[in-house]
Write a structure and sequence with these properties.
The chain has four helices and six strands. The protein is an alpha+beta fold. The chain folds into two domains: 8-39, no CATH class; 57-191, Nuclear Transport Factor 2, Chain: A (Roll), CATH 3.10.450. The strands form two sheets. Strands 2-3-5-6 form a four-stranded antiparallel beta sheet. A hairpin with a 4-residue loop joins β2 (118-129) and β3 (134-143).
Amino acid sequence: MSSSRVPAAAAAFPCTVSHPLSRIVAAGIAGALIIAAAGCSPGPSPAPTPTPAFTDEADAFAAAEKVYRAYNDALNARRQGDVTADPQQYLTGAALEGDIETQSLLASNQLRAAGTAVLITFAGESTNVDEGNGTVTGTVCVDASGVVLLTATGEDVTPPGRGEKIAQRITFAGTSDTLLISAEETGEGGSC
């Protein structure tokens, strides 16, 4: 009996050869198998088909009303001094620019709005829905009789001719998940 021992792995797999050339061949075969397996993997997933921004007009109007109500609640909270209230999170484009400008104008004149406005009605007017995005237009009637304009000393300087109930035409842009107010304009006659 020879004094050299056969490694256990070689005994278990008699075709295992410890020759350097056979290791290269084995590595090449393993590499080829890996490449072949990768070639069999499924290709890239197809791009998802864009879905409409809303399922229907009623869905679009409901989403717009929900956003406007949340916006009005945030405005009321800001007017009541809640520093965490952020009505601007519901705005984009011209509506956002208008709010920033209004807040700057109030601050520079040492004025602040106080009180609560109540949304009386929301009426959907139109939708323009395409793949992924859409616009929704509606009219709101807001009871602003509870909102006043105050100076730094608390003097009420609310314009005397301001109507108590204000009609506004609101344009929203986005999808049902990301709908934002993009434009606000006073409705015809200004009151409702």
